[in-house]
Amino acid sequence: LPSPRTSRRGPPGAAPAMNCRAEVLEVSVEGRQVEEAMLAVLHTVLLHRSTGKFHYKKEGTYSIGTVGTQDVDCDFIDFTYVRVSSEELDRALRKAVGEFKDALRSSGSDGMGQISLEFYQKKKSRWPFSDECIPWELWTIKVNVVNLANEQERQICREKVGEKLCEKIINIVEVMNRHEYLPKMPTQSEVDNVFDTSLKDVQPYLYKISYQITDSLGTSVTTTMRRLIKDTLAL
Amino acid sequence: AMDTDLSSQDRKDLDKFIKFFALKTVQVIVQARLGEKICTRSSSFPTGSDWFNLAIKDIPEVTHEAKKALAGQLPAVGRSMCVEISLKTSEGDSMELEIWCLEMNEKCDKEIKVSYTVYNRLSLLLKSLLAITRVTPAYRLSRKQGHEYVILYRIYFGEVQLSGLGEGFQTVRVGTVGTPVGTVTLSCAYRINLAFMSTRQFERTPPIMGIIIDHFVDRPYPSSSPMHPCNYRAGEDNGAIYPSVEDSQEVCTTSFSTSPPSQCVFTVTKAHFQTPPPVVTDTLKVPVMGLAFSHQLSSSRLSYQPAALGVGSADMGYPVLFAGGLNAAHPHQLIGPGKEGGVPPIPSQPAHGTQADQERMCTPLDGVHYSAATPSSSEDTETVSNSSEGKCGSPHDILETIFIRKVGAFVNKPINQVTMANLDIPFAMFAPKNVELEDNDPMVNPPDSPETESPLQGSLHSEGSSGSSTGNTHDDFVMIDFKPAFSKDDILPMDLGTFYREFQNPPQLSSLSIDIGAQSMAEDLDSLPEKLAVHEKNVKEFDAFVETLQ
């Protein structure tokens, strides 16, 4: 497991111009497991990085809406994850993950790629300069896609990937618990520089998702995964 | 000096936050072990009773138990709130799976703002708890509960007791939140020697496992509080409706939300068990067994010698998996009323029992409604999400084949049939079934030769009355009797499929069974005096022989 790299804490309240916390997670999955594995990780991060909707009142106080949660069972992995109850957010993530999966698939059967979830703040600049996007947390999920030969291997993969995802969730929670830099709670005029206020039921921090497909490593990845599975079978 | 730094309002707020945090923690944990998916709705506008800005339902019974355990106190150093999760089989045996601990240590963070930062961090910690409760091994176990076992919870306050988790238990930290009076820590210790049983055990694949002896150890501490099932009410006489959760004073007033609390009314339909549910007592006794279980992991088979019963070596291939659907004649064979010791009767469930259990598997909390009765509340009745999914399975989906051992010519045949449910051992359902009687042995009484019907035959006869003569339609085809050469046997004619199935799991040779070994040793011992006498007679010959060697 790669140890998460963290940057030093910036002074509270200051924009982290050069500091951005970066975490990297790696998973090896079968093609049909890619979407669910990505959704599980992304939703777990966003669960921790979303609040209820803010409603500002006079005198600078505000109320916060309520975030509901729901369990999602995976079809291709022995795993259940929790996500915030927001269909809009789920749709947005599924769209991004779907594109990523398609890109992986079209790159060849033995694909490698990574998907990134970046949280940022907007910093307004004076004209003629455009607003800056300053990232303060970056999650990268590296994906190896493997091909399995038979049903028995697939069954083992279901369980193994489920166990791996359990570890990833624990890793994510560890990072969240460090209580490191979070953007200051904004005033009403600043709220759109910190949060995504476009959804109707929850309010995640401003985020963007991007991905890239890296070069396939050819057979070596498949061989390693196959060996891992065979070792498990040999018991 | 410590308390003077904190304003009295802050102190009051902090105490309230910690109290409700403890109550919500218990709700999240117990709800995560109910055996079903949890679903709550987001709401743009707060309702005032949604502590920490999270929609976490309050099951009144659970809150009641938590408050009882806390008895007005708050977690402090040396006084932790613990939620113990355990598994209880229909035979009455139980095993601790997890202990969730909410602890407080002395490390204080004086600078932190109570009503703002601490509150938000407690909210974050609850989200982490939601996530973590789905990734410990007990989660998957709890999703499959209902038929052969149930998951129970127990709340206690005081010193953490981890000894019931067995050796090598693992810990996962959910998180910490620093406050001016100490640091709140939430963690989970869970048994791991059940982990490899969790998914494999209850599915088709035969697991490689042994029964761990330490399950049978008497609990060192008698439970000071009763265990509670996570997903059904133990007995209808407990049917009191618990008081609503929040007094009007216990609103989560923070700088954020201001609307009044809503009331929760909780009703449960009758328990779905057809037989009385296992008795829940204050002191749980796990029977200490006189039987020894030995592991034979090298041969990857579970073997045991129940010497007390005098049954022959029962070295079986695969332990019997669960009763649902296993034996058509006794679909609920392994479910009996809970008992501590003694032989349970094996009721054969009436047809509607199947129905109820089937419902139970898929929708365990069918009758649960959480309704907000406040007039001003816009929230309607919400039902806990019951989605029956393929994985849940009805009892009949679990196993389709009955595991039957056919006894071969050289195999040590058992004397009588013993069903595991009759044996007074814990977790009897995990142990293998015995072989059947000789009468059912096809080697002794071969089955009738199956009709060798060519697969072509069926397709030749057209369904509709096409008018063509039925007698002539198969003139173009030659009927073939499908008898593969290697399976053709005058003594035991059978088709390939049957042959393969029956000889797929050959029983162990009797010469390898210990009983035969013991027998022959007894014979050897008996014949010793005789042999000695013969050798004595031939002493001179032996001496001569020895001479030639030197």
UniProtKB/TrEMBL annotation, chain A:
It holds the Pfam family ATG101. This is Autophagy-related protein 101. One of its GO terms (molecular function) is protein kinase binding. It is found in: Preautophagosomal structure. The keyword DNA-binding does not apply. GO terms for biological process: autophagosome assembly. Belongs to the ATG101 family. The gene is Atg101. PANTHER family: AUTOPHAGY-RELATED PROTEIN 101 (PTHR13292). Coiled coil: none annotated. Keywords: Autophagy. It comes from the Eukaryota. One of its GO terms (cellular component) is phagophore assembly site. InterPro entries: ATG101 (IPR012445). The lineage of its organism: Eukaryota, Metazoa, Chordata, Craniata, Vertebrata.
From TrEMBL, chain B:
This is Autophagy-related protein 13. InterPro entries: ATG13, HORMA_dom_sf. Belongs to the ATG13 family. Metazoan subfamily. GO terms for cellular component: Atg1/ULK1 kinase complex; cytosol; phagophore assembly site. The gene is Atg13. Keywords: Autophagy, Cytoplasm. One of its GO terms (biological process) is piecemeal microautophagy of the nucleus. Residues 333-392, 438-472 are annotated as: Disordered. Its main location: cytoplasm. It comes from the Eukaryota. Residues 458-471 have a biased composition (Low complexity). It comes from Hemiprocne comata. Residues 373-389 have a biased composition (Polar residues). The keyword Disulfide bond does not apply. The keyword Transmembrane helix does not apply. It is found in: Cytoplasm, Cytosol; Preautophagosomal structure.
